[in-house]
Amino acid sequence: MLIKEYRVILPMTVEEYQIAQLYSVAEASKQETGGGEGIVVVHNEPFDVAANKWPPKTPLLGNRGTGQYTYKIYKLQNKVPKFIRMLAPSGSLEMTETAWNAYPYCRTVVENPGYMKDNFFIKIESMHVQDAGTQENVHQLPPNLLQKREVVYIDIANDKLYSNSDYKREFDPKLFKSSKTGRGPLTNRPWWENFDGPVMCAYKLVTCEFKWFGLQGRIESFIHTMERRIFTNFHRQVFCSMDQWYGLTMEQIRKWEEETKKELDDQIEKGPARGVREDD
């Protein structure tokens, strides 16, 4: 089992990020869906801790008793490395994503119930705080897990991208300047030093386990490499899309999500293949 805490520092408030994240997840889903692959949104509805719609025996950080529950299916046949496709039976590369968004705390669990069952999971616990990633144990880990945890800072403007194909000029924080807020471009190294504006951190604790003899270490390392890639690319897009989401209300975001769900359902059946394919 590998545990890493990714600290993604962003030029916005925690309140702004709640809207930004939801908007950008919907947009990113469109970019990864088509040609029979991508994301199917099955449930997107409120949850209440008191109504037992929260995982049992797990703490709810952030002092929230309600939030938004989502359940998604990921069809990934050509979005994983060749060596995994060679080992996995046909139809086995469907993942489920269950998420509880009790902002500022969120928990997401990715599983493969049809094939790997209890031998595989990725758990992402996110806490969003108005600081520059300075808290040492924001997730309240016990000493034994704190000792295993590795901290990784992500600089969305200056970190090297995983692949040249990940670079999109329109999502380059070193070039973008928001017309609505005046924030950007992010040119310092690290960019948040002497930044004249709000700074927050998304603390993302990622725990993954892949029980397969001879492959466990390789796959778990690959998962963390991909998680860092996703966090970097996604948050570059979050910042550089600021003029699209800034000023939206939660009511507008929920309507946007409903429209996106309908579009995804249509794209996965009729649209062309899209997004990152792991042989790129």
TrEMBL record:
SUPFAM superfamilies: Bet v1-like. GO terms for cellular component: cytoplasm. Residues 1-262 form the Phosphatidylinositol transfer protein N-terminal domain. It holds the Pfam family IP_trans. Gene3D superfamilies: 3.30.530.20. It comes from Macrostomum lignano. This is Phosphatidylinositol transfer protein N-terminal domain-containing protein. InterPro entries: PI_transfer (IPR001666), PI_transfer_N (IPR055261), START-like_dom_sf (IPR023393). One of its GO terms (molecular function) is phosphatidylcholine transporter activity. It comes from the Eukaryota.
